[in-house]
Amino acid sequence: MIEIENIKKAFKDKVVLKGISTVFQKGKTNLIIGGSGTGKSVLLKTMIGLIRPDTGRVLYDGRDFYEGDAEVKQAIRREMGVLFQGGALFDSQTVEQNVRFPLDMLTNQSMEEKKERVAFCLKRVGLEGTGQRMPSEISGGMKKRVGIARAIVMNPKYLFCDEPNSGLDPLTSVKIDALIKEITEEFDITTVIITHDMNSVMEIGQHISFLYQGDKLWTGENTEIVNTDVPELQEFLFSNKLLRDLKP
Ligand SMILES: Nc1ncnc2c1ncn2[C@@H]1O[C@H](COP(=O)(O)OP(=O)(O)OP(=O)(O)O)[C@@H](O)[C@H]1O
User: Fold this and answer.
1) Taking every annotated instance into account, which residue ranges of this chain make up the domain ABC transporter (predicted)?
2) Calpha distance 161→163 (Å, rounded)
3) Does ligand 1 have an atom closer than 6 angstroms to the CB of 40?
4) In the CATH scheme, what is the code of domain 2-246?
5) Strand partners, 55
6) Where are the extended beta strands (E) located within the chain?
7) Rounded CA gap, 114 and 96, in Å?
C-alpha cells in the first residue's frame, strides 16, 4: 500500500499540486486520471523521487520515503518497478539485455541466475524466445511487453506505469491493460497507472483518483464512476461518446 498525504508542489509561482491525499491499494490497479496538464505526471514523479514535493508525505507500507533515513529510501527504490511512456528501451541492446539491465546494475547475481530470471519474466509477458531480437525488430505492443518484463524483473512491490497505452491500437491496449492487471494480482503488487484512456478506466480501474487542476476531486471504482455528481469528472468522462451513451 502507498499512502500520499497532502502533497503540494509549485514551480516558481505556478502551483501544480494543491494538496493531494489518497491511498493506493496493494494487489490492485490504481489509476490516476485527468485531463492534460492537470498534474498527473508531476504527482507520479513526487512518488518515485524524481521531484521532491514542497510539503506532504509519501508512505510505502508505512515507511516515509522522504523523511526516512537514506537506507530506507534506497530499500524502497529497489522495490519499485517503472514502465516508462514509450517503453524507453535501449535500441542498441537485445530484448534480453534490456530486461536484464536492472539486475546488472543493482544485483550481484550470476549470469546464469540473471538469464533464468529474464527468461521467466519474458515468458510471463508472452515473449518467450524473443530475447535475442533487437527492439527495432519487434512491434509497439511487444516493446511495451519488454518494458513490463524489465519493470518486474526485480520482483517489485510497487509498479508505476506512465501512460502504458500511448501509441498502441485499441486491441493491443486492452491486452496490455489485462497483462498489467494480471501481474498486479498474481504478484500482489501496488500498481499505480497514469492514464487518460477511458477504456483503461472501465477495464482496469479498480481504484481511481481523478485530478483536476492540481486537486483530487474524486476517488472510487470504475463500477461507480459513471454515477458521479462531480461536474468536472462528468465533463471528463462524457467527452467520450461510448460513455455518453451509457450515461445514467
Ligand atoms: N519541471 C517543471 N517545471 C515547471 N513546470 C512544470 C514542470 N513539470 C511539469 N510542469 C507543469 O506542471 C503542469 C502539470 O504537468 P503534468 O506533466 O503533471 O501534467 P499531466 O496531467 O501529466 O498532463 P499530460 O496528460 O498532458 O501528460 C503543467 O502545466 C506543466 O507545464
Assistant:
1) 2-238
2) 6
3) yes
4) 3.40.50.300
5) 8
6) 2-11, 14-24, 29-33, 55-60, 63-64, 80-83, 158-162, 190-195, 207-212, 215-220
7) 10
**Position 223: which residue type?**
T
Averaged over successive runs of 10 residues, the pLDDT of the chain (248 residues) comes to 97 95 96 93 94 96 92 92 83 94 93 95 92 92 92 95 89 91 95 91 92 95 91 86 67
**Atom 31 in ligand 1: which residue has the minimum CA distance?**
37
**All cell numbers assigned to 146:** 519488454
Query: Ligand 1: which of 11, 47, 198 to mutate, judged by most atoms within 8 Å of the beta carbon?
Result: 11
Burial track 155-181 (b if 16+ CB lie within 10 A, e otherwise): ebbbbbbbbbbbebeeebbbebbebbb
pLDDT at residue 237 in the model: 86
CA angle, corner 191, sides to 77 and 48, nearest 5? Answer: 30
* CB of 39 closer than 6 angstroms to any ligand 1 atom: yes
Confidence (pLDDT) at 170: 87
Listed by start position, the domains of the chain span 2-246
CB count within 10 Å of CB 229 equals: 7
**How far, in Å, is the centroid of ligand 1 from the Cα of 40?**
8
Ligand 1 centre to CA of 112 (Å) is: 42
